[in-house]
């Protein structure tokens, strides 16, 4: 603390905090950190970085330090540290005040985990927590301790964030969240073959992995769909394309129902519920033309990656 106190007044003032950069400067306009800072990382930090190296938190000594100075009640918006600017490990040390940091899933904003950061604690972000989860601090003067639901009063706080500057483009396995498109591999597909590849990697693979959880959370039938099915005559043949867990196939009515889905795991789940189901591609259905009285395809088309396939 003493080694940086004399520089605090010179820090750059942002909306809700003051920042100091050592080693390299992070440019908040370009999200890059390729400019040398006027000041090196203080020698007083060596004992901390030595311990982080000893315990394998970092594989090499950090070469960039950002010091954030927060007045009581201030915070920082949820964000992911830029993939291409920094290495695979981010470490933040909290000083002077306890507080709660929130982690939010990039893919599901409803998935939020509050984590207590006691004063003098260290949080290390690697893998998913580094690349896929946003972290942030809400602007408020009190936090609720997630461990005992007691109120925590915030005070003046300083954090030290240690990172390594990236020397090459990001090679993380979280491409859909990365700021580098892998030389065009993440762009909108231009051909049907490219579209099929993207759908296989980011639709079929995901649904095979989450089928069990999907089944537990998808029970409610959409009102408009239910009304449509209720208007069909008894003994009508209904085909549900993209039937998922079979929620429209298990209705207690007099319809003849057949479902299909490209996800084998969801087909298995539907089959265990007594549904007539086959594993099939919605764009290559194994049915004769005009064989059904009605066809539904609910929340399926948006999974196709190109306009032509939709």
TrEMBL record:
It comes from the Eukaryota. One of its GO terms (biological process) is tRNA wobble uridine modification. Keywords: Methyltransferase, RNA-binding, Transferase, Zinc. CDD domains: AdoMet_MTases. It holds the Pfam family 2OG-FeII_Oxy_2. One of its GO terms (cellular component) is cytoplasm. Gene3D superfamilies: Alpha-ketoglutarate-dependent dioxygenase AlkB-like (2.60.120.590), Vaccinia Virus protein VP39 (3.40.50.150). One of its GO terms (molecular function) is tRNA (5-carboxymethyluridine(34)-5-O)-methyltransferase activity. The keyword Transferase applies. Residues 61-166 form the Fe2OG dioxygenase domain. Its cofactor is Fe(2+). This is Fe2OG dioxygenase domain-containing protein. The lineage of its organism: Eukaryota, Metazoa, Ecdysozoa, Nematoda, Chromadorea.
